[in-house]
């Protein structure tokens, strides 16, 4: 199945046509799709009305520099801030991270979306794409925060997506722009990068997003279309039965699989349930690559928001108001 990007604040005629295709199971929104809270709600309603099938509406609303919706939304600290706080008071830092997750998820659901791709389970070890999006460099610290963050998202009625499996933080390159190769053996990756993911799975994470990183001592292909990483490690060894997302196939690191159609075929054959085609320029090719047939859309049912809400009711929620104040106070420290 496909999760597609759209161009602007309103759907085009072509995008409404894409939403008719049985392979299109959702839409991912970016800053380019946001002008205001009312406009965002109208766009989400139009996406749902334009398809005969339920559409999973997604975003990356992590906080810090990766926060797609800002005007009228809480200013969310980056995850690294909580790792810093944990050096002096880990219990308070973990509690704050859970409220960060609840606040983020509540606002996204109130806006008409279902899912924010979070939390980042990568280690903060200098990767150009991850940086302060990670809680910390230490695997045990990140693992604790991942459990807390998953719980906070679930509190709000949102599914949690661990990213980017099996770990994007220990290699330098940004896969948006470059190929990334992590030459460590599996024994080192298992000790360093996998603990946050295993902690998240124990906490009940509902989905996993794959990394576009190549780990040549483990498998020849990038993890996102590696049968070894998806089938053997994630599903067989770790026992994950939830939803597997690709990372964006519009990234430079995905080009190793070939053109758009080849990228989709490789990811799906390796075990991805849904492929992200985020740049509008590649959506037409992505949709054209998918046959018109029935797709196992029930696989994604667990990812739809469990507690639909609107901003008016959210504003009256005591926990939401408390979380809003906690994050505002944290920004002042």
Provide structural commentary:
Helices cover 40% and strands 12% of the residues. It has a single domain (2-332), classed as Glycoside hydrolase, family 3, N-terminal domain (TIM Barrel). Helix 3 (80-86) packs antiparallel against helix 4 (90-110), helix 4 (90-110) runs parallel beside helix 5 and helix 4 (90-110) crosses helix 12 (318-332). The chain has helices at 13-18, 37-49, 80-86, 90-110, 139-156, 186-192, 194-202, 227-237, 260-270, 280-288, 311-315, 318-332, and strands at residues 2-5, 24-29, 56-59, 61-63, 66-67, 115-116, 161-165, 207-210, 243-248, 274-277. The longest helix is centred in the first third of the chain and has 21 residues, at 90-110. The termini are far apart. The chain has twelve helices and ten strands. The chain has an eight-stranded parallel sheet with strand order 6-3-2-1-10-9-8-7. It has a two-stranded antiparallel sheet with strand order 4-5. Strand 4 and strand 5 form a beta hairpin. The chain is of the alpha/beta class and 333 residues long.
- Which stretches are poorly predicted, pLDDT < 50 over at least 5 residues? none
The outline comes out as: globular
The CATH architecture is: Alpha-Beta Barrel
The side-by-side strand order for the widest beta sheet comes to: 6-3-2-1-10-9-8-7
CA gyration radius, whole angstroms: 19 Å
Domain module tally: 1
Question: What is the CATH superfamily label?
Answer: Glycoside hydrolase, family 3, N-terminal domain
Secondary-structure-based class equals alpha/beta
Q: Secondary-structure element sequence?
A: EHEHEEEHHEHEHHEHEHEHHH
């Amino acid at each position: 199945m496909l999760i597609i990007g759209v161009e602007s604040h309103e759907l085009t005629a072509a995008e409404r046509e894409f939403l008719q295709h049985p392979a299109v199971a959702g839409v991912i929104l970016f800053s380019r799709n946001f002008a205001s809270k009312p406009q965002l709600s109208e766009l989400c309603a139009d996406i749902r009305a334009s398809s005969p099938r339920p559409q999973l509406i997604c975003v990356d609303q992590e906080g810090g520099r990766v926060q797609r919706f800002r005007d009228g939304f809480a200013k969310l600290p980056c995850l690294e801030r909580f790792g810093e706080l944990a050096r002096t008071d880990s219990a308070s830092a973990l509690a704050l991270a859970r409220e960060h997750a609840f606040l983020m998820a509540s606002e996204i659901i109130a806006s008409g979306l279902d899912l924010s791709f979070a939390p980042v389970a990568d280690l903060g070890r200098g990767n150009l794409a991850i940086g302060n999006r990670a809680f910390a460099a230490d695997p045990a610290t990140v693992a604790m925060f991942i459990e807390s963050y998953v719980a906070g998202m679930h509190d709000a009625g949102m599914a949690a997506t661990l990213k980017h499996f099996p770990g994007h933080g220990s290699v330098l390159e940004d896969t948006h722009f470059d190929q990334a190769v992590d030459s460590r053996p599996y024994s080192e990756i298992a000790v360093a990068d996998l603990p946050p993911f295993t902690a998240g799975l124990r906490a009940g994470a509902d989905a996993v997003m794959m990394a576009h990183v190549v780990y040549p001592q483990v498998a020849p292909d990038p993890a996102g279309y590696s049968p070894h990483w998806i089938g053997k490690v994630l599903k067989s060894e770790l026992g994950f039965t939830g939803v597997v997302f690709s990372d964006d196939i519009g990234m430079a690191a995905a080009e190793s699989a070939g053109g758009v159609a080849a990228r989709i075929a490789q990811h799906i054959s390796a075990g991805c349930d849904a492929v992200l085609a985020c740049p509008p320029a590649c959506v037409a090719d992505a949709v054209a690559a998918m046959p018109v047939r029935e797709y196992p859309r029930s696989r994604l049912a667990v990812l739809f928001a469990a507690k639909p809400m609107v901003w008016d009711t959210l504003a009256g929620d005591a926990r939401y108001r408390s979380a809003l104040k906690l994050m505002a106070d944290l920004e002042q420290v």
